[in-house]
Automatic annotation (TrEMBL):
It holds the Pfam family Bac_luciferase. The keyword Oxidoreductase applies. Residues 9-257 form the Luciferase-like domain. InterPro entries: Bact_Lucif_Oxidored, Luciferase-like_dom, Luciferase-like_sf. It is an enzyme of class 1 (oxidoreductase). One of its GO terms (molecular function) is oxidoreductase activity. Its EC number is 1.-.-.-. This is LLM class flavin-dependent oxidoreductase. The keyword Oxidoreductase applies. Keywords: Oxidoreductase.
Length: 340
């Protein structure tokens, strides 16, 4: 059975047509949407992290709040930019949020994408290792996080502590057992997907990927997933990995849907440069009557290869409308594809 979640970027803007005018609106509506999504049967609530932007930035207070308000839905990120993260402090935050949710955290991590400012991570006190770049720094931070989340002691205890210590070296607390296996890597290339597989991380592939062959996004992603699974098998991990892909999917079932997305029915992939060195393929949107959508999505090779589909939501259209879109996908599209 496929899992279906939503992915929100958490935009807000004080404009006439936005229902999300402030940061407070974005955060409180995210909690409400996760609750509504759980009620209609959605499997996951995921959130993108961007710094220096009017979008979600610090994910753990939001994830913890959702964990306290829900009981079943997976709660995750897609993705946290590891160039900005202190992996030690992140392990403590993640452990706390995971325990609050009862072990439902699914943390998507990544090198990050082009940001709002130049080298924004420098303002957070980080710089690449000697001879490396910001991508190396992100991967280094990630490898430290992966090691710490194993829960093994590594810090020498103070012989005169304020409180009694357990015997041996100390680990970071709170530790949440099993969180290490619920880390994902948001991969923009085949090579980083293979790297993630070797380290035992699940795979997230979004609507944006490095263009490595000129083929449609879904074909390139399917090949990326195949390379990832082969690398996972070669690494000899003792569990099956999870793989998610993101898509913009809008069933046209009422006048609101047609007004908002009726012009997206002829959408196509786009190719272009996201920075001077990187050519990328941007995935199309899917907007059509439910039966047409089912036919289109059945031809998407990456969706077929993945076990989790994350639906990107236009959060500024409000909680009620986005809950309607999610319900429409589950009710009118997913059954025709055998996802439920």
């Amino acid at each position: 059975m496929k899992k279906i979640g939503f992915l929100s970027f958490g935009h807000w803007s004080d404009t006439p047509h936005s229902r999300t005018r402030t940061a407070s609106d974005a955060l409180l509506q995210a909690i409400d949407l996760a609750v509504a999504a759980e009620e209609v049967g959605v499997d996951g609530a995921y959130f993108r992290v961007h710094h220096f932007a009017q979008q979600y930035a610090s994910p753990f207070p939001l994830l913890a709040a959702i964990g306290a308000r829900t009981s079943r839905i997976e709660i995750g990120t897609g993705v946290i930019d590891m160039r900005y993260e202190n992996p030690m402090y992140m392990a403590e935050d993640a452990g706390a949020a995971d325990l609050i949710s009862g072990g439902r955290l699914q943390l998507g991590l990544s090198r990050g994408s082009p940001e709002q400012v130049i080298d924004g991570w420098r303002y957070f006190g980080y710089q690449p290792p000697e001879g490396g770049d910001d991508a190396d720094m992100a991967r280094n931070h990630t490898e430290v996080l992966l090691e710490v989340l194993k829960g093994k002691g590594f810090a020498r205890p103070n012989p005169r502590p304020m409180f009694p210590n357990p015997p041996g070296l100390l680990r970071l607390e709170p530790h949440s057992e099993g969180l290490r296996e619920r880390l994902w890597w948001g991969s923009g290339s085949n090579a980083t997907a293979v790297w993630a597989a070797k380290l035992g991380m699940n795979l997230q592939s979004s609507t944006l990927k490095d263009d490595e062959s000129g083929e449609p996004l879904h074909v390139q992603q399917r090949k990326q997933i195949e390379a990832y699974r082969e690398a996972w098998k070669e690494a000899g991990h003792g569990r099956e990995p999870r793989v998610s892909v993101s898509r913009s999917v809008f069933p046209l079932v009422d006048d609101r849907d047609r007004a908002y997305f009726g012009r997206e029915t002829d959408s196509e992939d786009h190719f272009g440069n996201i920075d001077p060195k990187t050519r990328a393929v941007f995935g199309r949107s899917y907007a059509a009557e439910p039966d047409v959508l089912a036919e289109q999505l059945a031809k998407d090779e990456a969706i077929a290869a993945a076990d989790t589909l994350l639906l990107t939501v236009p959060n500024q259209l409000g909680v009620d409308y986005n809950a309607h879109v999610l319900d429409a996908v589950l009710t009118h599209v997913a059954p025709a594809l055998g996802w439920r």
